[in-house]
Design a protein that fits this description.
The complex is a heterodimer of chains A (about 300) and B (about 290).
Chain A: H1 2-8, H2 14-27, H3 47-54, E1 55-56, H4 63-85, H5 87-93, H6 95-109, H7 124-131, H8 137-155, H9 164-169, H10 172-177, E2 180-182, E3 187-191, H11 195-202, H12 207-210, E4 224-230, E5 236-241, H13 243-253, H14 258-266, H15 270-290, E6 293-295
Antiparallel strand pairs in A: 2-6, 3-4, 4-5
Chain B: E1 11-14, H1 20-26, E2 32-36, H2 46-55, E3 60-63, H3 77-90, E4 95-98, E5 101-104, E6 107-113, H4 119-136, E7 140-143, E8 150-151, H5 158-169, E9 172-176, H6 177-187, H7 191-195, E10 203-209, E11 212-213, E12 218-219, H8 228-241, E13 245-249, H9 257-270, H10 272-280
Parallel strand pairs in B: 1-2, 1-13, 2-3, 3-4, 4-7, 7-9, 9-10, 10-13
Antiparallel strand pairs in B: 5-6, 11-12
Classes of the chains: A mainly alpha (about 300), B alpha/beta (about 290).
């Protein structure tokens, strides 16, 4: 591409680049108490002096106060985006703790590096695994992961749906040999609590509401298997499934054909195989009705 | 340079999620919508479905926020490729972004950050802006910022910088009247001096919005009705442009679609100067 070559040949002016690195390095530093700019710069100087080297005062504000506006806007904007994209996590922590315990340390560790704001939280579940110190770490991770996959499901691509008409009209032999896969907007999740149902109730109320009310009961009696997906009306939805159904869907997620999945089932213990074999046809009909299945790319 | 090839779409509002339901249900007679390009540069789902429904009934103009035309990193052609694909879908008559920078290698600030006003920066930004317009193959406009700092290394004022960039790049101006006002308050200049010294024939669209006045400074918040001072400026600038598409931005503390549209329609009353001017003496600008 000619324009791409021309663009890469343009170097930024040295003075501009230095100024931008200085400016950027200050505005993405966490705010201190009362949402003020850090009084010390990374180089150890006081901000009131260092800001004046590059920034002129206004009729009403000193240079560091002018810089502080950008520092505040940076954090308030990004915290607000994370709050919107992680509504369950926000309500579990409350706004103040969410910002202090999650948003600021996460955004400091994983500095935003993509133009798309909806990707701002893509490393948040991983950051929780790496850095979060609370005793509820697994639960917090799972809540963040659920919020994240729901957000991905909202905008991920949809491939042509393998629908029941295709199943009934296609050549059966050809169909069972073709590798299938799950829609890119479909995610298989398993939790030790009934997290999707819990989330549905929680997000109906604001974060402030939950600071003065008890959370609804969280069932922890078994492993819950769920499918997160976009329905045929393009709305994000979830559905609980059984463990056998979940395991078969995992095989399709790998891009296996129906034939290969059946071979895989034959290797399982008899009880599980019998249950799967008994229900597979019904499940396939349901999955096609929901539009979960598609042909693997290239097929 | 001629503005005649650009249609005056009339008065529009920014397309925002809280208004979708009313737009789809009522199909109000709004002249056009502006979309934030990045909100629709996704692979699928409701955003694309909603955009398709809007495009069935309304002209749409694209406005971007993350190009970072003045940033030190090379232009992001993966981003531009997606942007161009979206322009093909929307058939936007032009496309705009901001005269700013927003990311460094390894850090995206998701903000419209100010540039120092130097000759070197004019040369750098204008060269990149020309490449963007060539690549996108549609008219490209840069919008003036609301800014809160001025740099010691500035060699010229904002309107000189803005004018030089668009003229050198041979691109267009998306003139935000509220931003002129906000910056005039924050930097202590006369907003009239600003608009009297820019190439108004390059203005292809106007933005209006509300701001928040904190006394010591004014913040471009897009969460209020347009202030009277900004309407007054608009009334002076609009006839000088020959009449261009005008858009109200409202991005927080949303009010109903009906109230938003009513606020935008106030622009009609301030456009009368143009019509009076026509009645008296048609001029070459039109």
């Amino acid at each position: 591409m000619n324009q791409e070559k021309s663009s890469s040949a343009i170097n930024p002016p040295f003075e501009l680049q230095k100024l931008q690195e200085w400016f950027g390095g200050l505005i993405n530093r966490p705010l201190v108490e009362n949402d003020l700019i850090n009084p010390l710069t990374p180089s150890g100087l006081v901000i009131t002096k260092e800001a004046g080297r590059h920034i002129a005062p206004s009729p009403t504000l000193q240079p560091h106060q002018r810089l502080q506006i950008y520092n505040q806007q940076y954090w308030w904007r990004l915290q607000s985006v994370l709050q919107t994209n992680f509504p369950l996590l926000l309500r579990l922590f409350g706004t103040h703790s969410f910002n202090e315990c999650i948003a600021v340390p996460y955004l400091t560790a994983y500095v935003p590096n993509h133009w798309a704001l909806n990707l701002l939280g893509e490393n948040l579940p991983q950051w929780i695994q790496e850095k979060y110190q609370g005793s509820d770490k697994q639960f917090v991770h799972d809540a963040a992961y659920l919020d994240w996959v729901l957000s991905l499901s909202f905008t991920n691509e949809q491939y042509p749906v393998l629908d029941s008409r295709f199943l009934s009209e296609g050549n059966p032999e050809e169909l069972i040999e073709k590798p299938l896969c799950l829609q890119p907007h479909l995610f298989l999740v398993q939790f030790d609590q009934n997290l999707p149902a819990f989330r549905d109730i929680i997000i109906k109320e604001s974060a402030d509401f939950w600071t003065t009310h008890d959370f609804p009961p969280l069932l922890q009696d078994k492993t819950y298997y769920s499918v997160i997906f976009r329905n045929l009306q393009n709305n994000v939805a979830w559905k609980d499934v059984g463990s056998e159904e979940y395991l078969i869907l995992q095989q399709f997620a790998k891009g296996l054909s129906i034939e290969a999945v059946c071979e895989w089932m034959e290797e399982l213990e008899v009880e599980r195989y019998t249950l799967m074999a008994t229900h597979l046809q019904k499940w396939m009909q349901e999955w096609t009705r929901y539009g979960w299945l598609t042909f693997a790319p290239g097929f | 340079m001629s503005r005649r090839k650009f249609p005056n779409l009339g008065i529009g509002i920014g397309l925002r999620i809280p208004h979708y339901e009313d737009i789809f249900r009522l199909k109000p007679a709004i002249d056009w919508f502006e979309i934030i390009s990045e909100n629709f540069m996704v692979d699928g789902g409701k955003p694309i479905e909603n955009l398709d429904r809007i495009l069935e009934h309304y002209p749409v103009v694209q406005h971007g926020v993350t190009l970072s035309i003045g940033g030190p990193a090379p232009l992001d052609f993966e981003y531009l490729k997606k942007l161009k694909a979206l322009t093909r879908k929307t058939k936007t008559p032009w496309l705009s972004d901001h005269l700013c920078w927003g990311h460094l290698p390894g850090a995206h600030f998701h903000d419209l950050l100010p540039l120092p006003y130097t000759k070197e920066v004019v040369a750098y930004v204008s060269e990149r802006a020309r490449i963007v317009q060539d690549y996108l193959e549609i008219p490209f406009a840069l919008e003036n910022l609301s800014s809160y700092v001025a740099f010691n290394q500035d060699e010229m004022n904002e309107w000189e910088f803005y004018s030089q960039v668009v003229e050198k790049a041979d691109i267009y101006m998306m003139l935000d009247v509220n931003n002129i006002y906000v910056s005039s308050r924050n930097h202590g200049f006369d907003p009239r001096e600003y608009y009297q010294n820019i190439p108004l024939e390059r203005v292809i669209q106007i933005h209006l919005a509300g701001h928040s006045d904190f006394g010591d400074y004014v913040l471009d918040t897009h969460d209020h009705p347009v202030r009277n001072e900004v309407w007054e400026l608009y009334a002076e600038i609009y006839p000088l442009t020959g009449g261009v598409s005008t858009l109200l931005e409202w991005d927080e503390n949303f009010v109903s679609l009906e109230e938003t549209w009513a606020e935008a329609l106030k622009a009609k009353a301030f456009q009368k100067n143009l019509h009076e001017q026509h009645a008296l003496a048609p001029v070459g600008l039109v």
